[in-house]
């Protein structure tokens, strides 16, 4: 859906406390989350404002966002156990 928020807290509310803890104490997690949030904002901005962008570029942004979300989720779930 266009313009839909994909932030981690929205998608993984059960990890809210763990996300805050990891963001504060894990530099790799923090950097990945910052990149993920930046990419999510870029994608939403392009979609919402109907910015001219190639399909290839948009797909690259979305693929990177999915990759980072998967990576962040793996980090969260592996630390939770």
Task: Quickly describe the structure.
The chain has 4 helices and no strands.
Give a quick set of tags describing it.
mainly alpha; 81 residues; 0% strand
Tell me the span between the first and last alpha carbons: 33 Å
Please give the largest β-sheet.
Answer: none
Strand content: under 5%
What would you report as the Rg, rounded to the nearest angstrom? 14 Å
Query: What's the tally of helices?
Result: 4
Oligomeric state of the chains? single chain
Give the overall silhouette. Answer: elongated
Secondary structural class: mainly alpha
In helices, the fraction of residues equals over 70%
Name the helix and strand elements from N-terminus to C-terminus, one letter apiece: HHHH
Mean pLDDT equals 90
Instruction: Tell me the count of domains.
Output: 1
Structure description:
With 81 residues, this protein is mainly α. The chain has one domain (8-80). Helix content is 77%, strand content 0%. It contains 4 helices and no strands. It has helices at 8-11, 16-25, 27-48, 55-80. Helix 2 crosses helix 3 and helix 3 (27-48) runs antiparallel to helix 4 (55-80). The radius of gyration is 14 Å and the shape is elongated. The termini are far apart. The mean pLDDT is 90.
What order do the helices and strands come in, and which of them pair?
Elements: H1 8-11, H2 16-25, H3 27-48, H4 55-80
């Amino acid at each position: 859906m266009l313009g839909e928020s994909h932030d981690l807290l929205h998608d993984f509310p059960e990890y809210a406390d763990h996300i805050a803890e990891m963001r504060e104490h894990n530099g790799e997690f923090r950097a990945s989350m910052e990149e993920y949030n930046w990419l999510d904002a870029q994608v939403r901005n392009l979609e919402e404002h109907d910015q001219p962008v190639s399909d290839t570029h948009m797909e690259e942004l979305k693929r990177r966002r999915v990759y980072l979300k998967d990576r962040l989720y793996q980090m969260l779930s592996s630390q939770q156990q």
